[in-house]
């Protein structure tokens, strides 16, 4: 899941090809745009909101258990692949977040929307 200024922008689901564990496309893996369930988005946003500093971007990687709980595998804050190809508004969302952060706007609080 990709967040700009701690607001959800878009998400992709990567899957390994049959018989392999690697999800990268160069190894036959696939990536498709998805809309995560709201409860998963809230869990991911809660993780980001535990960081008090502004975050221009963040990629929150994980898996969802059979019980619907999101388990963090990686919180990518430096040099992430943002998969902007997967969503028509991704670049626009990134630009909006950049403008907000440059304007020294306070980071999103718990009462604000987690969506753009």
SSE arrangement:
Layout: E1 2-4, E2 7-15, E3 30-34, H1 38-49, E4 57-64, E5 70-76, H2 90-102
Antiparallel strand pairs: 1-2, 1-4, 2-3, 4-5
Structure description:
With 116 residues, this protein is an alpha+beta fold. It has a single domain, classed as ATP-grasp fold, B domain (D-amino Acid Aminotransferase, Chain A, domain 1, 2-Layer Sandwich). Helices cover 22% and strands 28% of the residues. It has a five-stranded antiparallel beta sheet with strand order 3-2-1-4-5. The two termini are 13 Å apart. The relative contact order is 0.26.
Question: Total strand count, please?
Answer: 5
- Globally, the shape reads globular
- CATH homology-level superfamily: ATP-grasp fold, B domain
Number of domains: 1
- Strand fraction: 25-35%
CATH topology: D-amino Acid Aminotransferase, Chain A, domain 1
Q: Kindly name the structural category.
A: alpha+beta
Run of helices and strands? EEEHEEH
The biggest sheet amounts to: 5 strands, antiparallel
- Ranges where pLDDT stays below 50 over 5 or more residues in a row are none
- The number of helical segments is 2
Mean pLDDT: 88
Which class in CATH terms?
Alpha Beta
* Radius of gyration from the alpha-carbon trace, in angstroms: 15 Å
- The helix content is 10-25%
CATH architecture, by name, is: 2-Layer Sandwich
Alpha-carbon distance between the two ends: 13 Å
Biggest sheet, strands in spatial order? Answer: 3-2-1-4-5
């Amino acid at each position: 899941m990709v967040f700009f200024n701690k607001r959800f922008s878009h998400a992709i689901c990567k899957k390994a090809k049959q018989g392999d564990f690697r999800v990268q496309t160069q190894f036959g893996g696939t990536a498709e745009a998805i809309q995560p369930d709201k409860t998963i988005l809230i869990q991911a946003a809660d993780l980001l909101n535990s960081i008090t500093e502004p975050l221009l971007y963040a990629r929150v990687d994980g898996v969802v258990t059979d019980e619907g709980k999101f388990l963090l595998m990686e919180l990518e804050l430096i040099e992430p692949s943002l998969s902007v190809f997967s969503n028509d508004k991704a670049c626009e969302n990134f630009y909006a977040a950049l403008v907000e952060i440059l304007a020294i706007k306070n980071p999103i609080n718990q009462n604000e929307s987690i969506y753009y």
